[in-house]
Amino acid sequence: AGPSKPSAGNEEKAKASKVAASNASEQAANPATQGEAKLDQVPDSAVLANPAPVAPAEAEDTNQDLFELAWEQLEAARVIFEKLGDAKLDRLAYTYEALANFSMENDTFVNAARDYEAARGIQEKLQGPESRIVIALLHSKYLASRRDMPEDALSCLQEAVQVWERRLSKWSDRTSPQYLEEASVLKEMKDEVKAFDAMLETMKNEAMAAMMGGGIGTTQIGFGAGSSSDKTTTVIQVQPKKKRVRPEDVVFPAFDTSDTHKKAKSDI
Predict the structure, then answer these.
(1) 3-state class percentages of the chain: helix first, strand second, coil last, to nearest 5
(2) Which of 99, 117, 65, 107 is nearest to 244 (CA)?
(3) pTM for this prediction
(4) Chain centroid, CA 216 distance in Å
(5) Which of 136, 153, 191, 256 allows an S-S link to 145, with CB 3.0 to 4.6 Å?
(6) More confident: 16 or 62
């Protein structure tokens, strides 16, 4: 009797073994194929859980670029609206306020106070000297001036209180909910004036005592002056590289609106 033929199941197993051996030999001969095979075995969850790290220097450069771009856009809007004159005064005021908010985020408080004051001057013309937006801008300037110009900050806050008092003095119905709400805000602002004034007085007395006692004192009065905590605090600022442009230095292109130009353009 001749040798028995292999069954169909045994034939399939033999073919699978040959294919597996062939694939293994190809991967051994080609390192790139090995890398692809290993990469295919990594689950998606592991990739999502471990994203590629971003170098600190690269992150700082990205922040600098974004801040620079934002500042340039706001500055371009400011120049355009100033060149357009009275027609866009409302937009110019909002742009100055946006620039001030940008400076507050970037801890450039002197620039913020300057731009809040510019916005306030325009809004006084548009909304009136006793409008709520003028009071809000005075309070914003106070917040911007607290650290570097505390005396100016106190003056801004006191002026905001005076404007609010004049505003309420003209109110006819003093029992209305809106009047009572504004009177409550005025009381809170007066309390803020007292607290800030007392804080400034304490800081002056401490600075004077340090100077008279022969210690390492300072006559500078402000929240950023001479405290030990400032020596260990590092503030990273992203400063725009370009200087502020004066509107008179910008020349818009002239457009010919004569009838001859219009006719020539229509004939094209």
Answers:
(1) 70, 0, 30
(2) 99
(3) 0.61
(4) 37
(5) 153
(6) 62
